């Protein structure tokens, strides 16, 4: 298992994160447990902040909160000077409750409800990223009703095919997101927006997909979007002030993933914007990016306890742990690959190949496939790395399993930021017949 951030093997042969021994964390908080390396999350924020800058171009880093969001996370993101992207009333509510500066909140979604848009407009968030024409009408009506003006970006689909899982590609021409840049109607939409009393049109947004490990995809996105901005500027006689390029920066989950060097990528992206704008004699738009996974994925580790093990009639070795697809649905959903280790025996010889599975009533309830481990014993602690993104945020109560607790660890201290659900929580919305 690759070690990230502050992860170490201590003198007892135990996995340590944020100078906390994982066996102590398990004693204190129980399992399953999401452990977040606060130092690594902050370092990742700083990496984006310090490397996505340029003398000539204004930039903004917007954390895509759907990867992992809680009240404490909102506070951290604000402390690190990032903005926040939300995609639902629930995410927006969390940000508001955490006192996140509302002008630094961006709202996404391909089917925002009237209630969500009203909440966003009344709160006075920074930008709404508009997905379609029908949403524009809705926004205009709400703004009229409350006598408010809102700044927006239009989400467009630049028609770029990325090399990632089908479910997280977002800019195929058949994708549900945004308006195609090949749709001639787009120029009418921009023209209409330019004379709208209630809507301040700032520019465009595109997001080509997630877990992208090929830097060329981002450069292609920049080329296509800058060409498109040139075309719109000419046809509509308008200056595009902002370009939001979305997120999608891929991370290491297992040996097959070779992440892009982010420092180089971020610098190259801004260089390419500058040279395209210079070539077209366009003013430099403000450039935003929306990293989610790359801020939190490697900072998260899930700790489980081993129950039984089983060798099937066909010879397959299973390790049963006390969590499952309810706390990590990504293996079932995307065929994701994870790395794992026995956290209390990090230096022990590996003895076999095991599939780590949970306790949900599905054969697809797999957490990590074919992992080399020492032979696991009942009570051993299994650590699964890179579970910081899209694990807690996608967790469910399937099989009525309470969702695990989330803790931040840093410099030998641990802090619970989401308490473990109880059986009482499981039935709290149920009503008797
Ligand atoms: C999901 C999403 C992101 C973040 O993607 P990551 O792969 O987590 O970086 C950013 N922008 C939009 C619009 C998204 O839908």
Automatic annotation (TrEMBL):
It comes from the Bacteria. Substrate binds at residues 293, 330, 334, 362, 390. The modification N6-(pyridoxal phosphate)lysine is found at residue 66. One of its GO terms (biological process) is lysine biosynthetic process via diaminopimelate. Signal peptide: none annotated. One of its GO terms (molecular function) is diaminopimelate decarboxylase activity. Keywords: Amino-acid biosynthesis, Decarboxylase, Lyase, Lysine biosynthesis, Pyridoxal phosphate. Residues 34-388 form the Orn/DAP/Arg decarboxylase 2 C-terminal domain. Pyridoxal 5'-phosphate binds at residues 248, 290-293, 390. It catalyses: meso-2,6-diaminopimelate + H(+) = L-lysine + CO2. Its EC number is 4.1.1.20. The active site is at 361 (proton donor). Residues 41-297 form the Orn/DAP/Arg decarboxylase 2 N-terminal domain. The keyword Lyase applies. Its cofactor is pyridoxal 5'-phosphate. It is an enzyme of class 4 (lyase). Belongs to the Orn/Lys/Arg decarboxylase class-II family. LysA subfamily. Specifically catalyzes the decarboxylation of meso-diaminopimelate (meso-DAP) to L-lysine. Homodimer. This is Diaminopimelate decarboxylase. It comes from Keratinibaculum paraultunense. The lineage of its organism: Bacteria, Bacillati, Bacillota, Tissierellia, Tissierellales. The gene is lysA.
């Amino acid at each position: 298992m690759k070690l990230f951030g502050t992860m170490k093997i201590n003198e007892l042969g135990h996995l340590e994160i944020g100078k906390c021994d994982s066996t102590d964390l398990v004693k204190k908080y129980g399992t399953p447990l999401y452990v977040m390396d606060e130092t690594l999350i902050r370092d990742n924020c700083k990496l984006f902040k310090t490397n996505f800058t340029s003398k000539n171009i204004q930039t903004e880093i917007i954390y895509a909160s759907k990867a992992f969001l809680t009240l404490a996370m909102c506070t951290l993101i604000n402390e690190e000077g990032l903005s926040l992207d939300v995609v639902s009333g629930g995410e927006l509510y969390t940000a508001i409750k955490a006192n996140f500066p509302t002008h630094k909140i961006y709202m996404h979604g391909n089917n925002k409800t009237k209630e969500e848009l009203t909440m966003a407009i009344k709160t006075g968030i920074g930008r709404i990223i508009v997905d379609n024409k029908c949403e524009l009408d809705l926004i205009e009506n709400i703004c009229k009703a409350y006598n408010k003006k809102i700044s927006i970006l239009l989400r467009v689909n630049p028609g770029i095919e990325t090399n990632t899982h089908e479910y997280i590609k977002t800019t195929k021409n058949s994708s549900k997101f945004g308006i195609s840049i090949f749709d001639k109607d787009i120029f009418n939409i921009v023209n209409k927006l330019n004379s709208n009393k209630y809507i301040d049109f700032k520019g465009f947004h595109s997001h080509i997909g997630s877990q992208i490990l090929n830097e060329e995809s981002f450069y292609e996105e920049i080329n296509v979007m800058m060409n498109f901005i040139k075309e719109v500027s000419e046809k509509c006689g308008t200056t595009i002030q902002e370009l939001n390029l979305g997120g999608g920066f891929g991370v290491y989950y297992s040996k097959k993933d070779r992440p892009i060097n982010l420092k180089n990528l971020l610098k190259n992206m801004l260089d390419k914007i500058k040279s395209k704008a210079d070539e077209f004699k366009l003013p430099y738009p403000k450039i935003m990016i929306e990293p989610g996974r790359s801020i939190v994925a490697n900072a998260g580790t899930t700790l489980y306890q081993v129950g039984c093990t089983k060798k099937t009639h066909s010879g397959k070795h299973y390790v049963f742990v006390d969590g499952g697809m309810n706390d990590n649905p990504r293996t079932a959903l995307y065929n994701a690959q994870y790395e794992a280790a026995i956290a209390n025996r990090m230096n022990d010889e590996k003895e076999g190949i095991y599939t780590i599975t949970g306790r949900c009533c599905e054969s697809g309830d797999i957490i990590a496939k074919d992992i080399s481990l020492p032979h696991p014993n009942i009570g051993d602690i299994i650590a699964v790395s890179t579970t910081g993104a899209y694990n807690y945020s996608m967790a469910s109560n399937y099989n009525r399993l309470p969702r695990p607790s989330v803790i931040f660890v840093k410099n030998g201290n641990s802090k619970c930021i989401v308490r473990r659900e109880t059986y009482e929580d499981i039935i709290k919305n149920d009503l008797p017949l």
